Amino acid sequence: MCAVLSIVGLFALATLGGLDGLPFSLARAVENTPATQASEVAELVGVYQSGSEKAEGSKTEASGLPIPRFVSLRTEPINLRTGPGLRYPVDWVYHRRRLPVEVIAEFDAWRRIRDPDGTEGWVRQNALIGRRTAMVLGATQALRRSNVNGSEAVANLEAGVIVNIQGCPAGPQCRVEVNGIVGWLNRDQIWGAYPNEVVK
């Protein structure tokens, strides 16, 4: 039998964004920064894309995309503001690219997001990307070789690990990739996919 690789969250591997010793509670490395000292969100070139079908019960906003929907952070650092504009103070600064977040409202070029820890605030649209990621929840989870019950584990993923969602067919599982390893996780083991959502 092949050895099963264990993959841990970033907080166990390295310092995040220069925040020495700060635990990564639900994969959010943040820093409380006074608005007078906060840098503005970097302007990035790119087209926002959505890679999934609408979640059940969602509505469509002016962008033509469903609300709510999952996306991920395009870069780091990213300022989370109290309102949709640069005049609003910065509440948090995210230091983890690819962190999954949920878009729950839109205003002009701004998006109100919710992170895995439940914190909400506003970021610029171009700070987000439609690439789907998810965060491992709870205790260590086994990444399975196939979506068959009892399938062999190919890796053990600790809470806080971010995985790339490759697809979520109808059913309880999603196909994900992390560090080049591909396998299956149950939806209730991750944050980043709705219970009945089909992700292609």
Please describe the structure with a list of short key phrases separated by commas or semicolons:
37% strand; mainly beta; 17 strands; 5-stranded antiparallel sheet
Describe the structure.
The chain has strands spanning 5-7, 59-60, 66-67, 69-73, 78-81, 90-94, 100-107, 110-114, 120-124, 128-129, 133-136, 141-144, 153-157, 162-167, 173-178, 181-186, 190-191. The chain starts with a strand and ends in a 9-residue tail after the last strand. A hairpin with an 8-residue loop joins β12 and β13 (153-157). It has 200 residues and is an all-beta fold. The strands form five sheets. Strands 9-8-7-4-10 form a five-stranded antiparallel β-sheet, with no helix packed on it.
- Low confidence ranges: 10-56
Q: Which series of helices and strands comes N to C? A: EEEEEEEEEEEEEEEEE
Radius of gyration: 17 Å
The proportion of residues forming helix, as a percent range, comes to under 10%
Beta content: 35-45%
N-to-C terminal Cα separation, in Å?
Answer: 32 Å
Short synopsis of the structure:
Helices cover 0% and strands 37% of the residues. With 200 residues, the protein is mainly β.
What's the topology here?
Blueprint: E1 5-7, E2 59-60, E3 66-67, E4 69-73, E5 78-81, E6 90-94, E7 100-107, E8 110-114, E9 120-124, E10 128-129, E11 133-136, E12 141-144, E13 153-157, E14 162-167, E15 173-178, E16 181-186, E17 190-191
Parallel strand pairs: 1-13
Antiparallel strand pairs: 2-3, 4-7, 4-10, 5-6, 7-8, 8-9, 11-14, 11-17, 12-13, 14-15, 15-16
